[in-house]
Amino acid sequence: MTSYEDITYEIRPEGVARITINRPDRMNAFRGQTVDELIHAFQRAGWDKTIGVIVLTGAGKKAFCTGGDQSSHDGQYDGRGTIGLPVEELQSLIRDVPKPVIARVAGYAIGGGNVLATLCDLTIAGESAQFGQVGPKVGSVDPGFGTAYLARVVGEKKAREIWYLCRRYTAAEAADMGLVNKVVPDDRLDDEVDAWCAEILERSPTAIALAKASFTAETENIRGLSGIAMQALALYYDTAESKEGVAAFLEKRKPDFRKGLRDGEKRKTL
Ligand SMILES: CC(C)(COP(=O)(O)OP(=O)(O)OC[C@H]1O[C@@H](n2cnc3c(N)ncnc32)[C@H](O)[C@@H]1OP(=O)(O)O)[C@@H](O)C(=O)NCCC(=O)NCCSC(=O)CCC(=O)c1ccccc1C(=O)O
């Protein structure tokens, strides 16, 4: 893969690889192809010795990433992997590359987009940024890194609030809960990210790689959980309950997850 359709890959500035999800007309939601291209780009930057920092961002001002593309999702998604999105590979790769990954967030970091930002080593947000999970509103969930690792970052109570209520949080609120390292006005976002990259590039790359590996090792058990989670999620995506969430989002209406149960439908539900 030498050219990309759903992402861009730039060296900007020297020593920094910037990977941009380039689907602004879809609020940078990802389909199977997007995730495959991201995996390719992270592998490319991760093992290139001339690169010291990787920046992950989204094209445009509206969104960093809003998770799985609901329009390419009818039950399973449209790509490879257990759920039709090799998202667990991408999540693991962000943790495995021996370079710090900075999430540069403007606009929405929602659903799988919030999971990606959470997994990055550092997050720098513009004041326009909004964070949140929407899975239980749209018939989805990431019960691996999306829940268990989030709890490590923001604490158990807050992580449960984020998933059960599906609220949106401002950049300032996200910084207060430890989800964001620094908030700046949107027009200063690139300067701030460049300054953090420059500072990291002055440090020993091997010392940083070892520090990153040691942080990552501490939460490695979640990778196993994530594998099981994907199997469970694939089964959930084939249920009427999950499909109601996707249909409601696409039809711009409120989902009714309990309708069938009220009518006496015998369904496997928890
Ligand atoms: C992002 C919103 C909060 C924006 O709200 P608002 O400003 O009111 O604008 P809207 O009118 O709602 O949206 C504008 C426009 O964008 C389209 N859109 C937004 N998000 C998506 C999307 N994800 N897919 C497709 N299209 C999207 C929207 O339809 C509108 O289009 P028009 O043509 O203009 O009508 C709000 O839009 C919102 O909440 N969106 C829902 C986002 C969503 O459902 N995301 C998926 C969450 S589930 C998920 O990501 C799981 C998939 C996954 O990746 C995963 C699975 C398993 C394990 C792990 C993961 C993982 O993510 O890590």
UniProtKB/TrEMBL annotation:
The record marks Y237 as: Important for catalysis. It holds the Pfam family ECH_1. Keywords: Lyase, Menaquinone biosynthesis. Substrate binds at T66, G67, G68, D69, Q70, Y108, A109, I110, G111, G112, S140, Y237, K252. InterPro entries: ClpP/crotonase-like_dom_sf, DHNA-CoA_synthase_MenB, Enoyl-CoA_hyd/isom_CS, Enoyl-CoA_hydra/iso, Enoyl-CoA_hydra_C. The keyword Lyase applies. It catalyses: 2-succinylbenzoyl-CoA + H(+) = 1,4-dihydroxy-2-naphthoyl-CoA + H2O. Pathway: Quinol/quinone metabolism; 1,4-dihydroxy-2-naphthoate biosynthesis; 1,4-dihydroxy-2-naphthoate from chorismate: step 6/7; Quinol/quinone metabolism; menaquinone biosynthesis. It is an enzyme of class 4 (lyase). The keyword GTP-binding does not apply. SUPFAM superfamilies: ClpP/crotonase. Its EC number is 4.1.3.36. Belongs to the enoyl-CoA hydratase/isomerase family. MenB subfamily. Converts o-succinylbenzoyl-CoA (OSB-CoA) to 1,4-dihydroxy-2-naphthoyl-CoA (DHNA-CoA). This is 1,4-dihydroxy-2-naphthoyl-CoA synthase. It comes from Cognatishimia coralii.
